[in-house]
Amino acid sequence: MTALSILDLAPIPSGGTAGQALRNSIDLAVKAEQYGYRRYWVAEHHFARGVASAAPAVLIGLVAAATSRIRVGSGAVQLGHQTPLSVVESFGLVDALYPGRVDLGIGRSGQRRAELAAEAPPPPSTEARVVDGLLIPPPFDYSFLVKHPQLRHQIALLQQPGAQTPDFADQIDEVVAFLDGTHQAPAVPGEGARVELWILGSSGGQSARVAGERGLPFAANYHVAPSSVLEAVEAYREAFKPSAALAEPYVIVSADVVVAGTDEQARELASPYGLWVRSIRRGDGAIPFPTPEEAAAFTWSEQDRALVQDRLDTQFTGSPGTVVERLETLRRVTGADELLVTTVTHDHADRVRSYELLAKAWEGRK
Length: 366
Description:
Elements: E1 3-8, H1 18-35, E2 39-42, H2 56-66, E3 71-74, E4 77-78, H3 84-97, E5 102-107, H4 109-118, E6 129-131, E7 134-136, H5 143-146, H6 149-157, H7 168-180, E8 196-201, H8 206-213, E9 218-221, H9 229-239, E10 251-259, H10 263-270, H11 273-281, H12 292-296, H13 302-313, E11 316-318, H14 320-334, E12 338-342, H15 348-364
Parallel strand pairs: 1-2, 1-12, 2-3, 3-5, 4-5, 5-8, 8-9, 9-10, 10-11, 10-12
Antiparallel strand pairs: 6-7
Helix pairs in contact: 1-2, 1-15, 2-3, 3-7, 8-9, 11-13, 14-15
């Protein structure tokens, strides 16, 4: 049976605090273990008033301490902001206390942002397509976002003055060398750690190729970049070479999900999602997640709608049966070996309930 896992951003609700969000995440991880989820990953986000997951390794350690079986990890640590040594030492420290449960998911968003800033924007497109039941929306143009003055300032704050990010493939090779003890300098803790190394990617570019060529498991982002999920998994599988870690390709695919007792209730809980995505794509960072009432009071322009439409169209909301059917389609079309579910609602109880309903429906499906 295809396993379900969780990606958590430690969302801060409107009127809430970072401390509350972090306590909610730890509580959700405990519940997720009871519900049978395989992994509990936390994201890395900075300068966002609505997200508390700025330091994945720290939060992973807290989650590991509160649980006993579920795998804990990052989705994903951004190597553009840290050295391979610092990442291996941080995750090696957690593994030293909770051996065999830690996943080190790595992304290349820092390097990718620089590439996007230099690239020509994608050709305008209004055509979505449906592949065997799975909606593939038009690509979103990120070029204006990465050139946003505020974001450029924030990127500079994440690195030491004058620092330059090495090539992603070289960084991954260095991470592997530190973990397996072949690096000329020892990483303590970290060397010999039973950490499972993952690469996360949103396209068929370097992340997918590096994951395949190094024989590592790969996570593809349908929830962030739904337009390119198929090319991402295809590029990974085409590049795959067996390794000590994997004999065959292994893919996990993410999805935004909100589950409730009925389709109508789920749509109500998910109604603030568009406003939340809007704040991210305008370059303001994720706002504290609004209530449905706050979202209903917002007046949308056509430009605002266009900014978030692909994410709204690819969010899986509904009753357990409705969402299970859509997740089955995602699994079938992408060939995913595992699915990574991320759910954000204003009230923590609704988020916990969504994961509980989904786990029961997924396990009970025929």
